[in-house]
Amino acid sequence: MTQTEQKNRVHVKIYGEEYTMRGPASPDYMKRAAHYVDEKMRQIGQTNSRLGVSRIAVLTAINLADELFLLRKELQELETILDQKTTR
């Protein structure tokens, strides 16, 4: 089995539920990602205490997608600035 085919396995807890994650990323990376999702879900759950878990999960996904889109936009803007500076 090559390094790219190797799957690491890690047990995590997200919003009180146990999950087994498997993938090529390092166990530490997968734990950090799960912890980040757990923190986001807890923030949304504390702000909206009447929501069920599935709605909290969907709102968390939307918030994470928003973060991703904003970071992609920022990256694109930085790449444009870099391109402009290198062509001068």
Keywords:
single chain; 88 residues; alpha+beta; two-stranded antiparallel sheet; 2 helices; 64% helix
Physical arrangement of strands within the biggest beta sheet: 1-2
Compute the average pLDDT: 94
Largest sheet: 2 strands, antiparallel
- Oligomerization state: single chain
Rg, alpha carbons: 18 Å
Number of structurally distinct domains: 1
Structural class: alpha+beta
Number of helices: 2
CA-based shape: flat
**Approximate strand percentage:** 15-25%
Please explain how this structure is put together:
The protein has 88 residues and is of the alpha+beta class. The protein has one domain. It has two helices and two strands. A two-stranded antiparallel ribbon has the order 1-2. Helix 1 (27-47) crosses helix 2 (53-87).
Secondary-structure blueprint:
Blueprint (H helix, E strand, L loop, with lengths): L7 E7 L2 E7 L3 H21 L5 H35 L1
Antiparallel strand pairs: 1-2
Task: Give a short summary of the structure.
With 88 residues, the protein is an alpha+beta fold. The chain has helices at 27-47, 53-87; strands at 8-14, 17-23.
